Amino acid sequence: MKKSVFLGTLAASALLAGYASAATLDDVKARGELFCGVNTALTGFAQPDASGNWQGFDVAICKAVAAAVLGDASKVKYVPTTTETRFTALASGEVDLLARNTTWTYSRDADLKFTFTGVNYYDGQGFMVRKDLGVSSAKELDGATVCIQTGTTTELNLADYFKANNMTYQPVPIQTNAEGEQQYLAGACDAYTTDASGLAATRAIFADPENHIILPEIISKEPLGPLVRHGDDQWADINRWVLNALVAAEEYGVTSANVEELSKGTQNPEINRLLGTEGDLGAMMGLDNEWAKRVIAANGNYGEIFAANIGEATPIGLARGLNAQWTQGGLLYAPPFR
Amino acid sequence: MTTMTDAPKPGFRLSMLIYDTRYRSMTIQIVVLFLFMAGAAWLVDNTIKNLATLGKDFSFAFLWNRAGYDINQVLVAYTNDSTHGRALLIGLLNTLLVSAMGCVAATVIGIFVGVLRLSKNWLVARIMTVYVEVFRNVPVLLWILIALAIFTDVTPQPRDFRATDEMIAAGEAPKASMLLFDSVAITNRGTYVPEPLFSRSLGNIDIGIFLISIDLLAFLAAVIGGFLAYRAIGTHATKVQEATGVRPKTLWKSLLVTIVPPVAVLWALGFHLGYPELKGFNFTGGINISNALMALWLGLTLYTAAFIAEIVRAGIMAISKGQTEAAYALGLRPRRTMSLVILPQALRVIIPPLISQFLNLTKNSSLAIAVSYMDLRGTLGGITLNQTGKELECILLMMLIYLAISLMISAGMNVYNNAVRLKER
Amino acid sequence: MSNSQANSAVYVRDAMLPAEHPPAMETGIIKWLRENLFSGPLNTILTLVGLVAIYSVLSGILPWLFRSVWVANSLGECRSIITATFGEGATGACWAVIRERWTQFIFGFYPSHLYWRPVLAFLLLLAALAPVLFTHLPRKSLWFSILYPALGFWLLWGGTIWIPVVAMAGFALGWLALRVLQPIGGTILATIAAVVVPILWWLLLAGPVAQQLQAILPIGIEAVRSDKFGGFVLAFTIGITGIAFSLPMGIILALGRRSDMLLVKALCVGFIEFIRGVPLITLLFTASLLLNYFLPPGTNFDIILRVIIMVTLFSAAYIAEVIRGGLAALPRGQYEAADALGLDYWKAQRLIIMPQALKISIPGIVSSFIGLFKDTTLVIFVGLLDPLKGITDAVRASIEWKGIYWEPYIFVGGIFFLICFSMSRYSMYLERKLQREHR
């Protein structure tokens, strides 16, 4: 009898169980909800506010996909993941989409069997040091103590960089960005290294940002993007084109403010195709034709999302840099909607 | 010859498998075995299917690949060119290091607190009670986090130790200074302690996995030799005492044989201490104990010591006062009463739960994750797992290693328990 | 002789004098001080060291506590208020973070209009525990304790009422099978049926039946999913479910370990030693990283449930060892007496052995429970937001509260202390009570 208590738990769990099948889109539609893996807490990219609503640059991707697929940006279940659990959560079907500032690398794509659906933030690893350390280049950091987040690509980059420049360093491993700030501010390390966006975000909210500088060297390429499981091309396409739609919308000047008006029809056939007033693009992916309109209406275009979460008007204050449109000298280049 | 006839055998019926107590346990065992095998087969089958779906294989070959990451606290040589297997070894040694340090410190503090809690001094007994209750009833994770916060926020930075030219001119002292005759520096980057150096070193032996210092071996040999000689002198003295009734004075001889050989070896090897010095960004020289290790050590020690204090208190209180009085009646002096009567009995009560606390401490050392100390979980179950994506292999291997450590400690406890068990006749 | 002596006496006292006051050193507070604090050189030194220790701790903490700020919108504001009030360089506690975010520490992301549900579940839990903990309450109320798991589940997760109802119906069916079959097929067949029938019910019928009932009679409250759980609601959910399930499992394991059946014993020993030999963190990683390897492809169930299962297994192994100790402490005569009375194994266990063994093991069981409750903080390492590190880190990720450490730790640590301390006091109360009964 007692044993059956335990089996009862298992059976009850079966009631709650969800089944991930090959067609993620059908699952998500049937469930009426998108499971989206995000960071446990990273300022500007994913963090819950006082009332428990998730916000941030990565969270906006989740919302956009939910808007496209389900027609409601709020129908997202956010699954906080750590650096250790993120890939398993995706591989096991616990999440449909991982939007957790994850670097697109060869082995993650080919060996871990994931599909990166694009890049939502072009980043690179940099160093932040105190001004009074008197260092103006990363090449002068020989012998320094460096705070570094574990379980990411940054520690490999750091090892490679110091090796290539024939320098030594003392790593201080840390678990989360919050710990990194604590250690760095207390002076437990001379330099703090992570993605330059993170450094800028961190520095911006110091009490004395003017006393810290970000060194000019960017020692790696860190294309951060959302990823899905291998083997479901339809779902990968949806995610890829949601991201592209956000970028294209900015390029064509479609914003959350004017999307309603523009969707009545414009002179620009590309905008018409994007917003579904011309052609039949949505059906090709198994969605309706207005998906992109909902995506933009939910969060705004890429530029609006950037400005609202991490842009120069926010306390984080990141410049667009590489993440500007290709027309502005950046790398954002959405393929044509045709 | 008479032939014995068996009692008439009732025919075997199927229901006897359940109702006959002779067969019932066999039936149950076979059913259990069947269920167990089926369950195991189900798990293995699922695993194989899942691995195939994910396109992964089950192999430990990744342990021989280049690790590519650096570790700040290492006991044996390691660079980012070493293999994942070697990173595992570093992690394992780090786990053992913090566990051993924690066990020693927690025992010392625990005994101290446990004895003081029984003290007649009202104030001290109360302080110790508060300490024990507060530390026992709050998650150890909190103590580790607090210890880390103390080490990063409260201790001085290395540059605070520097006396700049202006400060010397102004006659000011640096903000922080080293302890113990300028030999130990506690900074928020770690604690720097002097390291033993040998100017006429004998070099190292490479035993394949890591190097062993011959100097250390020579020193240990001298200490052990001295100890053996000391024992021999003691045995000889007892013999003489039994033969003649007079115990020869051995104090000077004993001191001589225990102290002279190690000192001679140290002198011959040119032993000196390498003091930490502030150079460039950091202190150099000496041994650097990282703050993660210090915080983990402190947190685990204070937490476990609270439990050990209770064990020690219970152990002492378990020995009835009659034992002391009986020993006095036999004419034993208080010191010998303690060492011959009370302690052997109290230890029998204290040691088993004490060892299970050691076991807990070793397992709790996996909370290194909270302070990013590179223990077994940090290397094998952390970075290696992340870089290679071999969750199944990494976690299983990690569990196996922890299990082996625990079983070894338990085996040691069983040996001790058998040795001190009340010999009942 | 005596006469002459009496006569020669100059003065004879014929009335008793009133007793003198004891000397000042031997009375009142001075005596107490002398005996308890300054009875010898060693004690005096200890007292002084103790006083210095208390002073150094309090002098660090008290000023910081006195300079508390309760109303502010960010850490920066807190600091400027403290600077404005107490002057440059003063540090003080900023409790405004607790004031603003305390709901998150307690309830996680549970919808705020439904806060009454976890609160009610907690209060009902106390009501359900009362008859278990305090034996002088009416035994009838135990029925409520038996029904509580379903009720608590329903209150916390919400949704249709029929899932917990059909789940509990499984137990009722098992009991029914036992009762119906016992006269017909004998005890053993009935016992087997009592185990198999509920399992079949849960695996095959419970789901459809619940759906049907819901379709016919839709009763339900707003569903709250596991991802909304966090803070102390999460810690309590994991802790209490773990405690409730690990006790029966621990008893089974302890009996298995003392069983005469070699195979059963070997399996139980293997399980217990394995679980006790690895850190909880590796089991949690197993729950989050490996379980989907071990289950059929595509199965994927709630992470909280996975964690609860692992925590239950972990705690059950420890409780099994505690109960084994209790069983070993029973004199052999008790077993022999039970055999002599002709009781079968289960009756002997139920009526003779277990009541005594459990009584002996109570302190150990309670301290296992305390350990389990403290260990719920480790779930942060698989991405669940526990109150100690999970919620604290989430709060710290917001721009307003970046860099705040001590206040959340003190708040959460204080709550943990209150709960664990009262549990350990309860176990001491029980110990004393049981000792008295033995006398």
Automatic annotation (TrEMBL), chain A:
It comes from the Bacteria. SUPFAM superfamilies: Periplasmic binding protein-like II. Residues 1-22 form the signal peptide. Keywords: Signal, Transport. Pfam families: SBP_bac_3. SMART domains: PBPb. Residues 33-262 form the Solute-binding protein family 3/N-terminal domain. Belongs to the bacterial solute-binding protein 3 family. PANTHER family: AMINO ACID ABC TRANSPORTER PERMEASE, AMINO-ACID ABC TRANSPORTER-BINDING PROTEIN YHDW-RELATED. This is Amino acid ABC transporter substrate-binding protein. It comes from Albidovulum salinarum.
UniProtKB/TrEMBL annotation, chain B:
It is a multi-pass membrane protein. Keywords: Amino-acid transport, Cell membrane, Membrane, Transmembrane, Transmembrane helix, Transport. CDD domains: TM_PBP2. It comes from the Bacteria. Residues 92-413 form the ABC transmembrane type-1 domain. The chain crosses the membrane at residues 23-44, 96-118, 130-151, 207-230, 251-275, 295-316, 395-416. Signal peptide: none annotated. It is found in: Cell inner membrane; Cell membrane. Its main location: membrane. Belongs to the binding-protein-dependent transport system permease family. HisMQ subfamily. This is ABC transporter permease subunit.
From TrEMBL, chain C:
Pfam families: BPD_transp_1. It is found in: Cell inner membrane; Cell membrane. It is a multi-pass membrane protein. Residues 232-427 form the ABC transmembrane type-1 domain. Its main location: membrane. The keyword DNA-binding does not apply. Keywords: Cell membrane, Membrane, Transmembrane, Transmembrane helix, Transport. PROSITE patterns: ABC_TM1 (PS50928). The chain crosses the membrane at residues 45-66, 114-134, 154-176, 188-209, 229-255, 267-291, 303-323, 360-384, 404-426. NCBIfam families: HEQRo_perm_3TM. Belongs to the binding-protein-dependent transport system permease family. HisMQ subfamily. This is Amino acid ABC transporter permease. It comes from Albidovulum salinarum. The lineage of its organism: Bacteria, Pseudomonadati, Pseudomonadota, Alphaproteobacteria, Rhodobacterales.
